[in-house]
Amino acid sequence: MFHHFRRRFLCTAAAAAAARGAGPPPIRVALTESSGRGVFATRPIAAGEVLHSAQPLVSHPSPSLLHEVCYSCLRRKAGSDGDGDDSSGSCYFCSDACREHSQGFHGVDKKADWSLFDDHCSSRGLKYPHMAKRLACMVISGAVSADCLHILQPARLHQGTLTEMEEEFALLDSTFRKAGFQEEVTAFLTREWYINVLARIRINAFRIELVASSYEDLLSSAVASVACDAAVGNAVYMLPSFYNHDCDPNTHIVWLASAYARLKALRNIEEGEELRICYIDASMDVNARQRILADGFGFECRCQRCLSGD
Q: What does CATH list as the number for 2-55+237-307?
């Protein structure tokens, strides 16, 4: 299944790039010796080169920014212009295109009263259940299939996390039922589906920080992230999720004005070299990096920087 999906995905990406006159992305997805799937260079890549871009599979703005960040693309509201506000006052759209793109799943979302679900997440500081809720709305609206995230690596879940997920699922399920959705359109929505989705979102979601600068002016360095404003939300992608971690990465993921991601080379990369990004703040000391990667991502980092104690 994976090989079939990978061929289909890369062929689609190549066709889109060819249509723009840019040629296929200089990458391939393959198995690594110790880290599962990885992304590799198919030719020499120069520092600063844009490798490819990616649209999110599912995204959600930070709950506190629903009136400041586009409900669809996570673009920040420009000034005090409120022309994009949803008629119900529940969220903000930056353009008619984003409103139309979201029409299906937003229509499903608006039919239900999410106050209990939102209060539960807010009281516990939870962000990923909002993404699972949006994915469920997308499935009900027909925008995506219920198994669209299954190809991604799941996180390891502890019993406490599973118990918490069961509480969230019960609230999600009851909210859809109270809203009057028929069983045939929510048949996919089981405890197993919810836990499966959350396990993948937890380890593959990116914290979206928008760089307040033009793309041409960005330095080819991970320190470009210091120019970022506060996080506007979270998103899960397909191809970027296949990049493995390194505390001294050769590739950087950048968001400019929206959740539309760009992957860029930080230094010269040789053909066949694995492309890696840094999942965390690379400026932390080795002990802090190891602790966060173990707790949040479930692995011990053995990159050269960590092995040297840097």
A: 2.170.270.10
